[in-house]
Write a structure and sequence with these properties.
The structure is a homodimer of 207-residue chains. With 207 residues, chain A is α/β, with parallel strands linked by helices.
């Protein structure tokens, strides 16, 4: 059976990455898809774990070769999801988590119908501003751009299936974990996993 | 906003009651709907906590007065869900858990469209038999009847939204808890709870 694709999205600075890191420690049967980006590496980031950091020429070359499931320009940098990794995992029956921007998520919606789409929203606009300031990795100009984008991104919420308002990191981790677990318990998916025959042979045993 | 109704169902002896007891200790915003029954009280059961134990005359009188959301004859005894309690809680915005037989669950499906329906299945038919024997509260004849019924009940699984195969009690408790949490995070429900206006005013604040 095919693995499930979980697409986690939301405005920049909302806490997606921290939530996903927490979730990855709690759930066993999910792997994280590492994106490619042309944005500069932040001090705490590790190549191949957080992102594959590539130059613009390499990125555009990958675009030409149709190597991305989705790609987008976000705040002046390229971001893309390597198609091959995601497709291979899902084919092997392994569940995959994507951490992507809202634009990228809406692209994936058109391509993979039965993926699970989760939007992470800030508790308030002021809180989002505070978090971006605290991160301190952005130039003033970049930050204002991110806040402007956030407004438009929040309008996309109704296209998603689940919404987590990230008030408290631990609670958000619990919530995303619950979504991941619950989605695997949908009747059609359990039957696919166990096999229809096996499940219904339960009722066919001799008494 | 309205509360959510969670309908937990499955064959007799599958472990529904133990799973729900475990879940009630973990989730805060859910109340348990106590059913009425004419079946004899088991030693460990408490009136008003596990069931309202009533005689057949009282039960049929309640049926006449349309006081049940659903009722059914299961293994020769009457079981019914008091309508008033469920309706009042849901109106107040409180989420309600029902522990009912499969027949009762399919009745609720016709009446309450946006309830959440969870089927608890045994890992195997032999395991179900073992559990019923271990419970030791049934006459041999009753037990055989329950096993026969279980076969037919398992055929109803595709009508449900979620399926938990109760291999390990703690894991099943985690799984049902996840379903309860995740369902409250569906976009339409979060927007209803927070108010559409409030959510989207996030994006409307001044920078």
């Amino acid at each position: 059976m095919a693995g499930l694709l979980y697409v986690i999205s939301g405005p920049s600075g909302v806490g997606k990455t921290s939530i996903i890191e927490g979730v990855m420690k709690k759930v066993r049967n999910v792997v994280f898809s590492v994106s490619c980006t042309t944005r500069p590496k932040r001090p705490n980031e590790v190549e191949g774990r957080d992102y594959f950091f590539v130059d613009e020429r390499t990125f555009l070359d990958m675009v030409q070769k149709d190597e991305f499931l989705e790609w987008a320009v976000v705040h002046g940098h390229y971001y893309g999801t390597p198609r091959k990794f995601v497709e291979e995992q899902i084919q092997k029956g392994i569940n995959v988590i994507l951490d992507i921007d809202v634009q990228g998520a809406t692209t994936v919606m058109k391509k993979i119908k039965d993926a699970v789409f989760v939007f992470i929203a800030p508790p308030s606009f002021d809180e989002l501003k505070k978090r971006l300031l605290k991160r301190g990795t952005e130039k003033e100009e970049d930050m204002l751009k991110r806040l402007e984008d956030a407004k438009r991104e929040l309008e996309q919420i109704p296209k998603f299936q689940y919404l987590i308002v990230n008030v408290d990191l631990q609670e958000s981790i619990e919530q995303l974990t619950s979504i991941i677990v619950a989605e695997q318990l949908k009747v059609s998916r359990v039957i696919e996993r166990l096999g229809f025959h096996k499940l219904f042979s339960i009722g066919g045993g001799s008494t």
